[in-house]
Design goal:
His_PPase_superfam, PGM_Phosphatase, single chain, 253 residues, alpha/beta, Phosphoglycerate mutase, His_Pase_superF_clade-1, phosphatase activity, globular
Length: 253
């Protein structure tokens, strides 16, 4: 699946888009709210012990797959949601590489309004019709102050275009964020939201899993690059150990 990012301005016909070599979007590790089935949204909840272990494993896998064999001259840039759980996840990857983590509010999770902090069971019991509409992608959460999915996707794409355009093809961009943000940003970027305006085209990834985007240059008639198509090369990937039953309940010391 590929989506196109255009160029604004009068020089579109002769512009050359500067962009990173790849974008990897990583969901944070587990929190106590995740374990309890509570809706987090923009509530600032840290990782629990399992989540800290998960992001350690994810960091090892990400460095092995995309850094260790990248070759000379390749660099990594790390961006994170400003919420604690995402920043902790980012540092688990970045700190062994001595990389700075750039916090960006545009990468925050979707706001779920008055439902934040409530368990899914309690939401279903208190507002059964709205809950049913929410899980069926019919917008029942909007009556409770949730952020519009289109707005989430728009700010997400804005952030990705901004960071991807700051660097050249010697840079791999790693963005640590949240389940709904990643899903809605990806669907907006690659055009799935035009096919599925209810944003039902992609579900949320597992904790400490990632998606990967690869740019495909599109040449204009004169041979210059006029836009970038981003291809979704991987979705919901994780460390090999995540396939075991111990991923959600590891035997931690």
């Amino acid at each position: 699946m590929a989506g196109t990012v255009g160029i604004a301005g009068a020089d579109r016909d002769h512009a050359v888009v500067r962009h990173v070599r790849s974008i990897t979007l990583i969901r944070h590790g587990r929190t106590a709210y995740n374990a309890e089935g509570r809706l987090q949204g923009q509530s600032d909840i840290p990782l629990d012990d399992t989540g800290l272990w998960q992001v350690e494993q994810a960091g090892i896998a990400l460095r092995h797959l995309y850094v260790d064999g990248a070759g000379q001259g390749r660099r990594q840039v790390v961006v994170s949601s400003d919420l604690t759980r995402a920043r902790q996840s980012a540092h688990a990857f970045a700190d062994p590489l001595h990389l700075e983590v750039h916090a960006d509010e545009r990468v925050r999770e979707r706001n779920f309004g008055e439902w934040e902090g409530m368990t899914l069971h309690d939401i279903r019991e208190r507002w059964p019709e709205d809950y049913a509409e929410w899980v069926e992608f019919r917008g029942g959460e909007m009556a409770h102050g949730a952020e519009d999915k289109r707005a989430v996707g728009a700010r997400g794409v804005e952030a990705l275009e901004d960071w991807a355009g700051r660097y050249g093809s010697d840079v791999d961009l790693f963005v640590f964020s949240h389940g709904a943000w990643i899903s809605q940003t990806l669907q907006t970027l690659i055009g799935l939201s035009e096919v599925h305006p209810d944003f039902a085209g992609l579900m949320s990834m597992r904790n400490a899993h990632w998606a990967r985007l690869i740019p495909l240059d599109r040449a204009d008639g004169d041979g210059t690059v006029g836009a970038i198509r981003w291809r979704l090369a991987a979705f919901n990937m994780g460390p090999a150990i995540a396939q075991s039953t111990g991923w959600e309940d590891p035997r931690l010391p």
